[in-house]
Records
---
Amino acid sequence: MDNQYSYYTPEQDDMNYQTERRGRSDRKKDKKVPTVIKVIGLGIIFGIVASASFQTSNIIAGKFLKTAPKAAEQKADSVGSTQLTTGSGKAVASDISEIAKNAMPSVVSITNMSVKQVQSFFGGIHEQESESAGSGIIIAQNETELLILTNNHVVEGNDTLTVSFIDEESVTANIKGTDSVRDLAVIAVQLKDIKESTRDKIAVAQMGDSTQLQVGEQVIAIGNALGYGQSVTTGIVSATQRTLDGFDSELIQTDAAINPGNSGGALLNANGEVIGVNTIKVATDVVEGMGYAIPISDAQDVITNLMNQKTKTKVAEGMQGYLGIQPVDVSEDSAQMYGMPTGVYVSEVVSGSGAQAAGITKGCIITAIEGTPINSTDALREQLQYYKAGETIKVTVQVPKNNGEYKSKTVEVKLGKNR
């Protein structure tokens, strides 16, 4: 079986519609999971919502907002942390078109613009811009921001994130928190950047209880398939508690079509409640209808942590902080083989660096920065982009003991200037 992350890019518009093409554009390298199954993250898109369905959702937006909570009305308590909006209980039979109509105002499209250094045929290095797209779910609002849940692979490596709402208005977003291990992220849009007319059309999604899902139960998937805007597919729960290599959690399996661009979109029950975050599908010629979603109940603690982090903005490259280590990835395979935690192995500590002053030594394994899990050198570098030289950050490391075990320790590191 072959799974791999899948991103929609404009170059794919000339695709043969009889043969599904998967993978990032030629300009963007496929991301591979560390083991047997390559996974397609459904962060890239091309399903078009049927004209009638899409127009209907706009026409009835006012009516919908009378019965569903508007984003503008979902405000966090001024004291305490932001919370998810939860629905009630068991799913009941309902018309698919009505569920889609009510849910679409809470689903957004996300465009990720990034710039990467690429080696040319003649050996030179040049920068090249790349665009990919995915989906997101409006999950909460605090006093200044609208919070949107998506997959980590939809937003990673971004230089600019753009969110498009149901009325096709677009605004810039920033990272709130990411978890590459669980493939989840929360991004934030400033309320002041959202037009009043748009705020009247959007809504905060209600969370369901994925622990109550039954095999055979009807589900609906909504997302920005192949980048053409929101589209709706339906199917059943094929299985629960599925495991795939490269994922640190059990997944919901469904035969509802999960296409490139659906990553980060909503999997709904018959109450219109979010019971999963669409994330991957099996990609092979001999398999059909094997898509997967992260169960919302299993992820609630992670999501709550992400949505209550400080919103991050990138620091100019010349001002970014320097940790002072030589990193080596500890993959899942290596971790299992050698009994090591997954993270970034410290192969060398630079003399006089902040890492040395904080007590980080050769052989330690970095597993988190400021509470954000770190499972690769890329994830480490991504997080360091948000901190200036001279700032002090909390770094979680696993320290090796004499008996081959590791002890977790969090230290404060004052970042130096990048060398």
Note: The CA atoms of residues 90 and 212 lie 7 Å apart.
---
Amino acid sequence: MPQHWSTEEVEAIVADHLQMLTLELAGQTYSKTEHRRRLQAKLNNRSDGSIEFKHCNISAVLIRLGIPYIRGYQPRSNYQAMLAEVVTDQLKRRSMLDQAALAAVQQPAVTPLGADFAHTLTQAPVRQLRVAEAQPEWQWNKPAIKRDYLEREAQNQSLGLAGEEFVLQFEHWRLNALGQSTLADRVEHVAQSQGDGLGFDVLSFEPDGRERFIEVKTTAFGKDTPFFVSKNELTFSRTAAQQFHLYRLFEFRKQPRLFDLAGEVSDHCLLDPVSYRASFS
């Protein structure tokens, strides 16, 4: 049986991971192979696979804290409670990571032209239960952090608008590819033409003419990045389940791709309440 990671090993790999994340968010190149080679000297004969898996565990912790994860290290949620503690402790001392992350999520976005829509659609992630080796209550009581960068990105109106315009292009392409050019011409950006309170952003169509209601959620980060939905959007996804589609655009600044969540959002995702409306009557 493999030995548990020691505190010293966990601290070493977390420090290396956060350094790579800072470089990635700042748009600077780096070599994962070179980082792993230097890191192995500080570890107890860990295999490449073991190191890779631990990096994926760190991604899962970062996602729970509202922080983007490194491209290629897909989040794996079965991690040590100690790992979460080390990550949160080291984040407090990473002012450069804070600056790079904040700049990345607030950066304006432009709708790309000439996208290869034939390779844009991909499979959605599979919903998984979150499990920790110990102290599972950590999962539900998020430690204090400086800011939720993913929430900041969700408020980036430039990125949101660029994503919606990209989906307009995609829907025109999809319907034209199905031989439905008349329907393609009727695709409408209703969030702009009618307002953003409808519960969806783009009105499109099925090949038989039935309406397709599309809500667009856009991120510059990876496929597993969480997104935010309003109460209105959740309600609409339930009442119009036969026609509702949530298009999740990801890696938008690199090579935009999307997956389609059709029907009720709750059928596809774990939903965590993150805010409440406080009133006096």
Note: The chain has two domains: 1-106, 154-267.
---
Amino acid sequence: MAKEAGDLLLLGNDLGDVVTAIGLSRATMRKIRQKLFWAFLYNSLGVPVAALGWLNPMIAGAAMSLSSLSVIVNSSLLQGYHRASG
């Protein structure tokens, strides 16, 4: 019942995990804002260039793949958050 009612579930006895969870949530929100900024910048530059026909479709496809890869790499940086903060 507590699992469904609570916003945060502590599985151990260390209350320091609450501080870690708050820090992780803030880091996650920073990552989300970063991704939105870069996606907006990338699309605001790339879409008009592609629409005008100034961009080879092969290069556009490669750029889109690199964009997706950068999102994955940027997100994976959060995996080490607990070890880095503790």
Note: DSSP finds four helices and no strands in the chain.
